[in-house]
Write a structure and sequence with these properties.
six-stranded parallel beta sheet, single chain, alpha/beta, Rossmann fold, glutamine amidotransferase, about 500 residues, 28 strands
């Protein structure tokens, strides 16, 4: 399947807003095509996310693209997300290019990167189009962010440069989907509008016959077709891209096997990263997972998790300001379980020396583990393997902080980290996705918390993830015009599309 230019067909999935469903729709399209034997790959030119993963070739990319690669049945690579921005504050982000950090930039200094990043992104897309049958590209935010259009490399800037047809996804559950679809198109300049082939309505619930008049009107007003209306289905997407989609309560989907629920409180840090570490707990029967921000919310939890952070020192200060630091120390004093992962593990130390991320120098930690942390300039990226509780563990690590344990301390090893009493710490992300390890860890947590809780013996997280990806592929097959999608891929960007002025036709 080659375009006239000799490259594989490609399509851009844009959205009216962040969290409109671009990642989900792209993953569904990937799964649908892969099940037909098409060699398909995902692509996102520029991603802003604190949820990332390490690929087999040692690159850091957005977590959503890794899961889209899983939907395609292939391993993720650096080319699938050549530019990753990891916010460390409201004004600056770490810039990761081809899987490696190249520096920090704010909104103004980032402009100096733009031309280079545009070339990197187009090269990566060309690489994927040369080695696959189809490439499905995901946009970022909205293509109608007109203040950013001049330097855009992720939305219409990419579509124009690579001559990609564009589908715009709108979230009807938020309300105002027709205004969002029409307004997005109308704000684009004519040359950009020419590439927009049509729309996808996402998260619909209700009577389809009541929606039809609106679909007819949007077709008439814009001259574009609606390629599908995807129904609302709860709990389909793991590995969300950012905290906009982070549920406060991700409680048990099935009742516990024992007489009690195991209550897990995950501290929702301001710069929380890789909170997808918690996904495996949310599919365990009887495990009630809640994201919390106040001291009283951790008081009765059986397990508290301090997750990863892109701003360890700043988020540690936030813990103290909120009174959560004292609450965690008090819990540990009572022997109640606490798990720190990556940045959360660093916060458990006696001291942190950071001249890299926050440049705050020496900072006092929570003192719950006999460790100290030094921030290194070089970022550690890896896919380690190990054992814990007699079970194999595969994981990944992404961190600047290097943890050193006091050699005189009486601690036990835990994955790559340490354990002291009911306090565990590790830099490894994804460890809880290993079924045997997860069950063994939860059994010990339950015993220490005095809970009559029995883990399900057959929970298979990898199978559950695959099942959800299959469900996304089913949504595409059942609720989208797949024949029209195939024509769009074969024929490329549509010609002669009408221009929609900002004031309407």
């Amino acid at each position: 399947m080659l375009s006239e230019r000799g490259a594989a067909p490609a399509l851009l999935v844009a959205g009216t807003t962040s969290d409109a469903g671009k990642s989900v729709v792209t993953a569904g399209l990937c799964r649908w095509l892969a099940r037909q034997g098409v060699r398909v790959a995902p692509f996102k030119a520029q991603n802003m996310s604190l949820n990332s993963v390490v690929t087999p070739d040692g690159a850091e990319i957005g977590r959503a693209q890794a899961m889209q690669a899983a939907a395609c049945g292939i391993e993720p690579t650096a080319a699938m997300n050549p530019v990753l921005l990891k916010p460390g504050s409201d004004r600056s982000s770490q810039v990761v290019v081809r899987g490696r950090p190249v520096g920090e930039a704010d909104a103004l200094t980032y402009r100096s990167y733009k031309e280079r990043l545009r070339e990197v992104s187009l090269e990566a897309l060309a690489e994927l189009r040369a080695s696959h049958d189809v490439v499905l590209c995901e946009g970022a935010g909205s293509p109608a962010e007109i203040n950013l259009r001049a330097g855009d490399i992720a939305n219409m800037g990419l579509a124009r440069a690579a001559d990609l047809p564009v589908l715009v996804v709108g979230d009807i559950d938020r309300g105002g989907v027709f205004a969002a679809l029409h307004g997005t198109l109308a704000l684009l300049e004519p040359a950009d509008q020419a590439l927009v082939a049509g729309f996808v309505v996402n998260k619909f619930r209700g009577a389809r016959e009541l929606l039809e008049p609106g679909l007819d009107m949007i077709r008439s007003l814009t001259g574009r077709d609606v390629y599908g209306v995807l129904p609302w289905l709860d709990g389909l997407w793991l590995d969300v891209e950012d905290s906009l989609a982070l549920s406060v309560d991700r409680g048990p989907s099935r009742p516990p096997l024992g007489s009690q629920t195991l209550r897990v409180a995950v501290v929702r840090l301001p710069r929380i990263s890789n909170f997808t570490d918690i996904d495996a707990l949310t599919v365990e029967p009887g495990v009630d997972v809640r994201f919390v921000t106040a001291p009283h919310e951790v008081a009765d939890a059986d397990l508290v998790i301090l997750p990863g952070s892109r701003a360890t020192v700043a988020d540690l200060a936030w813990l103290r300001e909120r009174g959560l630091a004292d609450a965690l120390v008090e819990r540990a004093g009572r022997g109640l379980p606490l798990l720190g992962i990556c940045g959360g593990y660093q916060m458990l130390a006696r001291g942190i020396d950071d001249e890299v991320e926050s440049r705050a120098g020496r900072v006092e930690g929570l003192g719950l583990l006999p460790t100290r942390v030094d921030f290194a300039v070089e970022k550690t990226l890896g896919r380690p393997v190990g054992t814990a509780y007699g079970n194999p563990v595969r994981a990944y690590e992404i961190h600047h902080g290097v943890v050193h344990v006091d050699p005189s301390a009486d601690t036990e090893p835990f994955l790559d980290g340490h354990r002291l009493g009911a306090v565990w710490g590790t830099t490894w992300h994804g460890a809880l996705e290993n079924d045997g390890f997860r069950r063994a860890f939860l059994r010990e947590v339950a015993a220490r918390a005095g809970r009559d809780f029995a883990c399900a013996p057959d929970t298979d997280f990898a199978a559950e993830r695959s099942r959800r990806l299959d469900a996304l592929g089913d949504l595409v097959e059942e609720h989208m015009d797949t024949a029209a999608l195939l024509r769009l891929l074969e024929d490329g960007a549509p010609g002669g599309m009408p221009v929609v002025p900002p004031g309407g036709p």
